[in-house]
Design brief:
81% helix, disordered N terminus, mainly alpha, globular
């Protein structure tokens, strides 16, 4: 999707785009809160939670695929058939960007706070830069290197505080969530060409549908199928809320925001995400709000801003 020059866009469109980006970022950040709330009920683990979330989200993502085709046909263009390479690419992107990233994230949330989880995931732009070095031989500029150092310093500050009372659990949880961030960064690094060819709506719908099927299949392999809904009713309602309000809706909001203000500004507006996660963690989970968390968050936001604003 082409970037939008905000100087050539009407102020009303910019205001709408910023509002959509803020709403999408806050909705995305609520996922960690819902998962932490669900973990309070017995018999709940990452395998069951991610299966319920993806099972409930699958009809919406299939609808997204249909809608992308409908829009294309309505514009008088034919829907481009998927080649064998496209199918392999969608399978790979669905595996890394939505299945593996989601599973590792859910697993890590069993060990660390929602605040630390969100800060680690927010390192994603810096990980994309590092993958560009590894995969494409790109060079890291001095401002980018400085921004990454600031961001990782902020995460280490919060992690060190959490590890002081959580011990090895904090290290395991942080490693799992970092693996999630790396997996999603791989998705971003390889999805650019396919987005240009298939369109963002179609690609996201297909890749997330693949991820949904993988998550459901994982549960079928690891758990008896008759236990799929053998959880507290509250967990089912939380999973439905996670699927709709924190998965499907923010995907749509962010895509509509990018259409209006471009990906760069949308990403910078998304900095509200970590702050909203911390606030919801304090209000809904009773997580601490202290100088360690505040200081680490400010460093991460500053570092990511430096990295993204210098692209």
């Amino acid at each position: 999707m082409a970037l939008v020059d905000t100087e050539q866009v009407a102020p009303k469109s910019i205001a709408t785009g910023v509002t959509l980006a803020v709403a999408g970022s806050i909705a995305f950040s609520g996922k960690a809160i819902i998962v932490k709330l669900a973990y309070r009920y017995p018999g709940v683990d990452a395998v069951s939670l991610i299966m319920l979330r993806m099972l409930m989200a699958l009809p919406f993502f299939l609808g997204l695929v249909w809608w992308s085709g409908y829009r294309t046909r309505k514009a008088g263009r034919a829907v481009e058939p998927l080649s064998g390479r496209d199918k392999l690419g969608i399978l790979g992107l669905g595996f890394t960007g939505y299945y593996l990233a989601s599973y590792l994230d859910f697993a890590g949330l069993a060990y660390i706070s929602a605040s630390l989880e969100r800060l680690i995931l927010y390192l994603n732009p810096t990980l994309v830069v590092l993958l560009g070095v590894v995969l494409y031989g790109k060079k890291v500029t001095l401002p980018q290197g400085l921004g990454m150092a600031i961001s990782y310093g902020g995460v280490l500050l919060v992690f060190g505080h959490e590890a002081s009372f959580a011990g090895g659990d904090a290290a395991l949880g942080a490693a799992l969530v970092l693996g999630s961030a790396i997996s999603y960064a791989l998705y971003l690094s390889y999805s650019g060409e396919m987005v240009q060819r298939l369109g963002s709506l179609r690609l996201v719908g297909l890749a997330t549908s693949v991820a949904c099927v993988l998550c459901i299949a994982q549960f079928g392999v690891l758990r008896p199928l008759d236990t799929a809904f053998a959880v507290a009713p509250q967990v089912l309602w939380l999973s439905l809320l996670n699927a709709i309000a924190c998965t499907v809706v923010p995907v749509m909001l962010v895509m509509m925001a990018i259409e209006r203000i471009g990906s760069g500004l949308a990403a910078q507006v998304g900095m509200v995400g970590p702050m909203s996660t911390i606030l919801m963690g304090v209000l809904l989970l009773g997580e601490p709000m202290n100088l360690w968390v505040i200081g680490g968050t400010m460093l991460v936001l500053l570092g990511v801003y430096v990295v993204t604003s210098r692209r």
